[in-house]
Write a structure and sequence with these properties.
The N and C termini lie far apart (90 Å). The strands form two sheets. This protein has an eight-stranded antiparallel barrel with strand order 7-8-9-10-11-12-13-14. A six-stranded mixed β-sheet has the order 2-1-6-5-4-3. By secondary structure, the chain is an alpha+beta fold. Helix 2 packs antiparallel against helix 3.
């Protein structure tokens, strides 16, 4: 009888997977709880062994996350909307993916960014809870800043990864700077300061180093927080 009872317990099917609308409601409630600092909502939705990997690559336990959940300080406001949610079945596990569309106001300045979030739900004792999450930011071109363009002619030129690496071309065209390895496929530089840019469609910053005359001597390209240095090689 003991063996039979054990087999019957083992053979019990996992709790039926909730509908997509249930996951949507849970995920939106968790996003709403971020600005409010509502740790209780996250506590109820997550498993005791929950692990979060943040967009900065930090790995946090449930206890560490709950400790950090606090209401936004004065001067900050924010909302996060869950969009494009999908659910992938995997037996007693459901993999939920969605886009977190965030809008934030920091002392009057509006910021907008989007993230891809993957949550792994697992059914245990009739409850579906999140056991792991991963968040990554969706790259997008930032808005151009109003900066002086007087020194841009000095930035145009040919740069190379020395001693014998790729060549990068910087061209001034109709008052705008463009750059790229293929002269036929140059992308516009988006100015952050007179000598600091984001190359449209790419991740990272391009920082021009100039000499006393304002002529570009090299470019420090921050590729995922690591510098790649391009040195000017034209006369």
């Amino acid at each position: 009888m003991i063996l039979l009872a054990a087999w019957l317990a083992f053979a019990q099917p996992a709790a039926a997977r909730p509908p997509v609308e249930w996951f949507q409601k849970i995920e939106q409630a968790m996003m709403d709880a971020v600005a409010a600092g509502d740790a209780g909502t996250w506590d109820r939705a997550t498993d005791a062994g929950y692990i979060l990997t943040t967009e900065e690559g930090q790995v946090m336990t449930k206890a560490e996350l709950l400790k950090q959940l606090r209401p936004l300080p004065p001067g900050l406001k924010g909302t996060i909307v869950v969009r494009d949610l999908t659910v992938q079945d995997a037996g007693d596990t459901a993999i939920v993916r969605y886009m977190a569309d965030e809008t934030e106001t920091v002392f009057g300045q509006r910021l907008a960014r989007k993230y891809r979030v993957t949550d792994v739900f697992r059914s245990s004792a009739g409850e579906w809870k999140i056991v792991a999450s991963h968040t990554s930011v969706i790259t997008a071109d930032p808005p151009a800043q109003e900066v002086s363009t007087a020194g841009w002619p000095g930035l145009a030129g040919t740069y190379r990864l020395l001693p014998d690496g790729w060549t990068f071309h910087v061209v001034l065209r109709d008052g705008r700077l463009f750059g790229g390895r293929d002269p036929a496929k140059l992308q516009p530089f988006i100015p952050m300061t007179p000598t600091a840019f984001v190359l449209s469609g790419s991740l990272g910053e391009w920082l021009f180093v100039v000499d006393e005359s304002g002529r570009g001597t090299r470019i420090v390209n921050l590729r995922k927080f690591e510098p790649l240095v391009w040195t000017r090689v034209d006369p």
